[in-house]
Write a structure and sequence with these properties.
The chain is about 40% helix and about 0% strand. It is mainly alpha-helical and about 120 residues long. The protein has one domain. Helix 4 crosses helix 5.
Length: about 120
């Protein structure tokens, strides 16, 4: 099993931190950026097409909640079920940067900020 480490390359397109994800830690997922099977994810596709590491790099929306790709009904249900707040993650990344966000999430052993 992998160890949780602070690695800004493990920030997912939507703002989650793959470095603390159970599947990533068990070597069952390579993380968002390297996951070729995740072509279904509209957020990941959008970020890859635009050359963004995550939605935090997007200047089109000042609030990621206004983006229909990031804030669709599936994402809202995911957030409700898993008590995940991806929009807050994106806000923290924008405010503090990827290295600080990754270090904080690794230290807290969290995949997302709580709802």
């Amino acid at each position: 099993m992998r160890e949780i480490v602070a690695d800004q390359s493990l920030v997912a397109a939507c703002g989650l931190y793959c470095g603390a994800c159970r599947k990533y830690l068990q070597d069952r997922c390579p993380g968002c950026r390297a996951n070729e099977k995740a072509k279904w994810c509209g957020v990941r596709s959008c970020c890859l097409q635009r050359g963004y590491q995550s939605c935090a790099d997007c200047a089109e929306f000042s609030d990621v909640k206004d983006c229909k790709k990031h804030n669709n009904w599936i994402a809202r249900m995911f957030g409700l079920i898993f008590r995940s707040n991806r929009a807050a993650c994106v806000a923290v990344i924008r405010e503090q940067g990827y290295p600080v966000f990754a270090a904080d999430m690794a230290a807290k052993k969290r995949q997302s900020l709580p709802r």
